């Protein structure tokens, strides 16, 4: 079992930055992929970024590539999402998610591959 707790959300002006953190407990966290997803009001929960257990392989949605950076510290059981040059369309609740088994890289964007989810943290970007 893995418990995930997100932090770092808030209100920021367009062009600003925020750093989200996901703190995890549980022994499978460090051995599997961890992702960030986001959900805006009235929309489906969407993939943002993911990082494999090694920390060397990262994946991003087209909408955040070049602005967001995902990283992990397995010694501290944390995964972070550095968000720069934020835009109003980045406004959403951001969720950390962890897989409990390996899965093909081609499926990294699919929610079904992530077993554990946090409760989310709100990010609001004003124009």
Element layout with pairings:
Blueprint: E1 3-7, E2 10-13, E3 18-25, E4 34-39, E5 46-51, E6 58-60, E7 68-73, E8 78-83, E9 92-98, E10 116-117, E11 121-126
Parallel strand pairs: 2-11
Antiparallel strand pairs: 1-3, 3-8, 4-5, 4-9, 5-6, 7-8, 9-10, 9-11
Descriptive notes:
By secondary structure, the chain is an all-beta fold. The protein has strands at 3-7, 10-13, 18-25, 34-39, 46-51, 58-60, 68-73, 78-83, 92-98, 116-117, 121-126. The strands form two sheets. Strands 2, 4, 5, 6, 9, 10 and 11 form a seven-stranded mixed β-sheet that branches. A four-stranded antiparallel β-sheet has the order 1-3-8-7, with no helix packed on it. The protein is globular. The N and C termini lie far apart (40 Å).
Mean pLDDT, to the nearest integer, reads: 94
Strands, count: 11
Alpha-carbon distance between the termini? 40 Å
The helix fraction, in percent, is under 10%
Radius of gyration, in Å, reads 13 Å
Low-confidence stretches: none
Work out the helix count: 0
Q: Given the helix and strand composition, which structural class is it?
A: mainly beta
Helix and strand sequence: EEEEEEEEEEE
Range of strand content: over 45%
Q: Largest sheet, if any?
A: 7 strands, mixed
Oligomer: single chain
Please state the overall shape, judged from the principal axes of the Cα atoms: globular
């Amino acid at each position: 079992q893995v418990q995930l707790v997100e932090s770092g959300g808030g209100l920021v002006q367009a062009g600003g930055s925020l750093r989200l953190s996901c703190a995890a407990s549980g022994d499978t966290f460090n051995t599997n992929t961890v992702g960030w997803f986001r959900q805006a009001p009235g929309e489906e929960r969407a993939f943002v970024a993911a990082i494999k257990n090694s920390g060397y392989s990262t994946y991003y949605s087209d909408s955040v590539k070049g602005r967001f950076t995902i990283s992990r510290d397995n010694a501290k059981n944390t995964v972070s999402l550095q968000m720069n040059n934020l835009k109003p369309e980045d406004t959403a609740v951001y969720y950390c998610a962890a897989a409990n088994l390996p899965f093909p890289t081609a499926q990294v964007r699919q929610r079904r591959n992530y077993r554990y989810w946090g409760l989310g943290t709100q990010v609001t970007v004003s124009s």
